[in-house]
């Protein structure tokens, strides 16, 4: 029986345990999207995770509309990530960069450009900008030339991630951002090669994954999907018809691991009655599978021990417990995260959560 606290090899990435830190935007970079020294401290505190998946990180100016989120498209950004990855490695940790294009979930006041997506749709909710919340704008549907450019941007950002010292990358294909806006039929109304059939809606995921693999190798490439439920207006009428073939494709491309964020009927970070798909996905994706959302210590131990998944990614528990692995191993009480400081500026609620010892 594998244990949550045992190591696992995923492609070229050796994780010393199966308690992973899920990707979490914390908005501590500069307005130019350059990482800052406080991020070194934050990630270093959490280096006992088997693997840290970084906060979502922009692949390009046009793809990043989140105030104070970091990027990986300029040399300055690459240089500013180096102390983060070096400090995590010095503590014996591993870290991959989550690569992000936000698609329609952006406002022109942040990017200077009309948002883009698979189709001319809008994000469902007002968007964070440097001037408070603003109403979403109708996205410009991407042309095939645009798609080719964006695919190339993912490859460049992956190369930059390795130059910055990351152990690999995670392609963010979840949570209603650009790739998810192609995958799911509520957002994708195209009638060309990138819309309609599941195969067509998966096409951009395939092209992006192939470009990242060409840039850094499949053994350093991973993907995050959120197959069930509604994420920022992205929902599929038949999720199994698109996400099972997508997982099969990723298996054939031999990526290092696949992470699924799945919503349960009582989820505390979004909920859904659409069934979780990790069972059928496990059958077609035979490499390491990582599951996320709302896992308790007991569920995580059981899920790994019974072979339902190979590792569990924790989000909010890692915000509030830098030493989460130790606390889970010794069954110690957990600190509760404070939602008010998720995206605030400064050290409070970021690097001041107490360690158990
Ligand atoms: C503050 C915050 C920021 C987040 N940012 C991201 C992100 O950048 N990329 C991503 O894929 N998910 C993001 N998520 C989702 C988390 O990775 C995770 O899926 C969610 O917190 C559920 O897991 P949990 O129940 O263990 O907290 C974020 C969640 C929180 C609370």
UniProtKB/TrEMBL annotation:
It holds the Pfam family Oxidored_FMN. Residues 114-135 are annotated as: Disordered. Residues 3-335 form the NADH:flavin oxidoreductase/NADH oxidase N-terminal domain. SUPFAM superfamilies: FMN-linked oxidoreductases. This is Alkene reductase. It comes from Acetobacter farinalis. The lineage of its organism: Bacteria, Pseudomonadati, Pseudomonadota, Alphaproteobacteria, Acetobacterales.
């Amino acid at each position: 029986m594998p244990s949550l606290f045992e190591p696992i090899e995923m492609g070229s990435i050796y994780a010393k345990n199966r308690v992973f830190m899920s990707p979490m935007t914390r908005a501590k970079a500069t307005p130019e999207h350059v990482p800052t020294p406080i991020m070194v401290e934050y990630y270093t505190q959490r280096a006992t995770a088997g693997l840290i998946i970084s906060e979502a990180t922009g692949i390009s100016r046009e793809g990043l509309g989140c105030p104070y989120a970091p990027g990986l498209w300029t040399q300055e950004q690459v240089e500013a990530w180096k102390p983060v990855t070096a400090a995590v490695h010095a503590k014996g940790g591993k870290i991959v960069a989550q690569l992000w294009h936000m698609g329609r979930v952006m406002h022109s006041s942040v990017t200077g450009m009309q948002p883009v997506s698979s189709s001319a749709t809008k994000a469902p909710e007002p968007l964070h900008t440097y001037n408070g919340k603003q109403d979403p704008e109708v996205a410009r549907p991407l042309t095939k030339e645009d798609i080719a450019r964006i695919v190339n941007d993912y490859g460049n950002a992956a190369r930059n991630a390795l130059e910055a010292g990351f152990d690999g990358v995670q392609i963010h294909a979840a949570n209603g951002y650009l790739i998810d806006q192609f995958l799911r039929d509520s957002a994708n109304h195209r009638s060309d090669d990138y819309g309609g059939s599941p195969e067509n809606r998966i096409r951009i995921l395939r092209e992006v994954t192939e470009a990242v693999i060409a840039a850094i190798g499949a053994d350093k490439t991973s993907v995050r999907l959120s197959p069930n439920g509604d994420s920022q207006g992205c929902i599929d009428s038949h999720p199994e018809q698109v996400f099972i073939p997508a997982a099969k494709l990723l298996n054939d491309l031999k990526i290092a691991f696949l992470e699924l964020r799945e919503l349960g009927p009582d989820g505390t970070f979004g909920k859904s009655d659409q069934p979780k798909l990790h069972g059928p996905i496990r059958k077609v994706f035979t490499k390491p599978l990582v599951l996320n959302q709302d896992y308790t210590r007991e569920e995580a131990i059981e899920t790994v021990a019974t072979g339902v998944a190979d590792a569990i990614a924790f989000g909010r528990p890692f915000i509030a417990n830098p030493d989460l692995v130790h606390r889970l191993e010794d069954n110690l009480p957990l600190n509760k995260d404070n939602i008010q400081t998720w995206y605030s500026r400064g050290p409070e609620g970021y690097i001041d959560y107490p360690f158990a010892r």
